Amino acid sequence: MRIINKGFRNSVAVLLAVALCLPLFGCGSANIDCDFNRDGKVDFFERIFCTPLQAVIEQPSGAGEAPIVASGGTLVTYIESPPLGEIAVLVRTPLIQRYPEGAPVVIHVPPFYTPVTGFHQGFDTTRLGAIYVSFLWPGKDDIRTGTRSQGENDYGGPNCLAALRDVIRFALGLINDVNGYSMDQLFE
């Protein structure tokens, strides 16, 4: 039992070290190499850390054309949330359209009371044919994609509620991203 616990702690330590050092190696958000220890195999922990952000395309603020992402793709964009500024939003679409009338949207609301940051990769709703949306609370960042939401995190207060409100409005098609595109326009 002690060997397993020690091995698990070592694996977690290696995973955290990789997570902290990843930005130093210049990994781009559009091409993430998941074999962090360079042993020629992507093991369980590397897969957990890397998947499903392998296909992330970050849309820089102020970009010209809307990046069209194919079905089964992932996109990071920003929405305006007054008075906070820009909130980073990650959207994943199903590979195959399951519902003829349109895909349902599931918004993963990350915990606001923990110091852990980054896009949360909860249950993979794309396998059920649903669009998956995650976002970064104000002032939080995601080291895997290099994105950051503006504003100050107030741990569930008015700032967080405003950000959540605007993410829901974006998912419903009521507002566009900072470049003027709706969620429908960003995907094929």
SSE map:
Blueprint: H1 2-21, H2 44-50, E1 56-58, E2 74-81, E3 85-92, E4 105-108, E5 131-135, E6 141-142, E7 147-148, H3 158-171, H4 183-186
Parallel strand pairs: 1-2, 4-5
Antiparallel strand pairs: 2-3, 3-5, 6-7
Describe the fold and architecture.
This protein has 188 residues and is α/β, with parallel strands linked by helices. The chain folds into two domains: 2-50, no CATH class; 53-186, no CATH class. It is 24% helix and 17% strand. The chain contains four helices and seven strands; from the N terminus they run ααβββββββαα. The chain has helices spanning 2-21, 44-50, 158-171, 183-186, and strands at 56-58, 74-81, 85-92, 105-108, 131-135, 141-142, 147-148. The strands form two sheets. The chain has a five-stranded mixed beta sheet with strand order 1-2-3-5-4. The chain is globular, with a radius of gyration of 17 Å. The model is unreliable at 1-32 and 51-63 (pLDDT under 50).
How do you describe this structure in short?
The protein has 188 residues and is α/β, with parallel strands linked by helices. The protein is 24% helix and 17% strand.
Oligomer: single chain
Give the strand order of the largest sheet, numbering strands 1, 2, ... along the chain: 1-2-3-5-4
- Contiguous low-pLDDT stretches (5 residues minimum) are 1-32, 51-63
Terminus-to-terminus distance? 50 Å
**Structurally, how many domains make up the residues?**
2
Number of helices: 4
